[in-house]
Amino acid sequence: METAHLPTWICGKRHDLTLDVMDIPNDVILGIPWLRASNPRVNWKTGHLQWDTPGSVSVTEKRVNSRKRDTPSNESKKALRIYVIAKEPKPVRSERIPEEYRRYGKLFSDELETGLPEHSRWVSEIPLKPGSEPRFRKIYPLNEEKTKALDEYLAENERKGYIRPSTSSAGFPILFVPKKNGKLRLCVDYRQLNNITIKNRYPLPLITELQGKLHGAKWFTTLDLKGAYNLIRIKEGEEWKTAFRTKRGLYEYLVMPFGLTNAPASFQTMINDVLREHLDIFVVVYLDDILVFSKTLEEHRGHVHKILQKLEKANLLVEAEKCEFHKQKVKFLGYEIMPGFIGMDPDKIKAVRDWPPPTKVKEKDQPFVWGNKEQEAFDSIRNKMLEEPIHALPDPSKPFEVETDASDWALGGQLAQRDEQGRLHPVAFYSKKLSGPALNYPIHDKELMAIIEAFKEWKHYLSGTTGTVKVYTNHKNLTSFTATKEPNKRQVRWYEFLSEFNFEIIYRKGSENGRADALSRREDLKPPTEVQRAAIFRETGQGTLQLGSRQVNATWKVEPDQEWIQRIRRAYENDDLASNWETNPACSKEQDTILFNSCYYVPKALQDELVKEFHEHPLHGPQGVHKTLTRLRRT
């Protein structure tokens, strides 16, 4: 007698087995065919099999008489008697977690593999705007490394039941971005789908609502949840909308993938349902942030246990390093909370509060005078910026406006809202010093990074807003960012993050973007010696990009040679670096042109010819090797 395909889970990995039913002392004997099919890693010294997922299998070798179906056989065959041993959860080591909560080891794990969840109230719906349909998009090319990562992703997620082959009329392209561990992560380019999706938002709680809920509370704990999108099913019948194209065929998701614009709203529905029994009684939750509050410490410990038990039962995970337990002063959703007080988080205004006094004047050859009178005036202006009626507390019921800018060395931004008379009031400010590779980003990516950092800084205010967030920048090219034909790996990561927000990028002249400009040019953020970097793209006064040079003679204006540009782009096809530019952290792509460390990349096949032509140009005059190379680097 023989079983049909029997789904069997071994150490978190699913195996569909066909087994002979026999009277043997062991539950299951898995032989050589299974070993070949599953291909585990074998540790012959310890007798264990291992996969990439937690768990191990103890192996004991033994001679047994094998039977195939009901046909007896005296042939002695080699088999493996296998016992499944569940690994104990890794001990929780974070010092932030009190000893009494370390019993919830699974809750604080790095990752947790679960099977395909059942359809429930936790579904992700993708409502489309009337008259719109998801499109079938062009596939992006993949090199050998990405093809291998694709095959692994498809095999792993089909095994888990998260994806399945599709016959959808839609099909979105995939891209890969590097993870911190050096591996590649698959992303689906859902920009077109998100543009036609009707947005579903959860607004931030009003400060007055929080004040009412937290009245009398003296003890607080904050928890930070990890993303758990694999616990949420795509609404039945809507899976086709998530279809993604690969060189291996068309697939669609059965669980909610990253990158969908309504993913945060679906996650909010799930976490509200998980904690519904205690919601607003002693816990407040907004997306992945949880606040537990109580009047006494003893009562608080009981409340925290109840919340952790609910989260663990729902297979949710908590970011241990971002949690705060048993505190009387915490930061939550951009507010500072203490017994009897809720106010704006001081860090949200420190970019202006800590603004240093000026040290020079803009005009040349002018004396700089700074005494007590000037310092008092400076302090007065700075302080008024942080007080009512100029500064205002955030109101989630009103639209937000974001202003951003980037300089060579820093980013700056302002979050603001308008009052009933239409007057703009600042809510929060930020400045961030650039460092490392970011200093060499092209101007387009620096300006885009300024928007990304602003949304990260003010995520709690902007992710659930019911209206469209207006984002003002003096970089015109960013207005079409969401329609970029083929974003680079850095832009893919950024767009995936921005997909959670409902926003519109609006161009504004630099002269009208003074607040963000000033925040990005604080003298205290400027490096001791500004490095002059040559970049092939230059920003014009109208906010657009053009090719140009730092070195311009009085009688000759440098113009890009379109014939050379086309030759260079055609040569990319046979150049190793150009073909794999996405895997090189020093490379980026702008307007179909590849940059290497922010400079124009010329394929090897054309380098000698370009140097020769540049060296012999009649307008350059006599020049040796050093001058020729220096001029090329500057161009």
UniProtKB/TrEMBL annotation:
Do you know which SUPFAM superfamilies this protein is assigned to? DNA/RNA polymerases
The name under which this protein is listed is RNA-directed DNA polymerase
Tell me where in or outside the cell this protein is found: Mitochondrion
Q: What residue stretches are annotated with the Reverse transcriptase domain?
A: 158-337
- UniProt region (Disordered), positions on chain: 55-75
Which residue windows are transmembrane per the record? none
For this protein, the Enzyme Commission number is 2.7.7.49
In the UniProt record, which is one GO cellular component term? mitochondrion
Question: What is this enzyme's class at the first EC digit?
Answer: transferase
Q: Name one GO molecular function term.
A: hydrolase activity
Q: Its principal location? A: mitochondrion
Q: Which keywords has UniProt assigned to this entry?
A: Endonuclease, Hydrolase, Mitochondrion, Nuclease, Nucleotidyltransferase, RNA-directed DNA polymerase, Transferase
Basic and acidic residues bias (residue ranges): 60-75
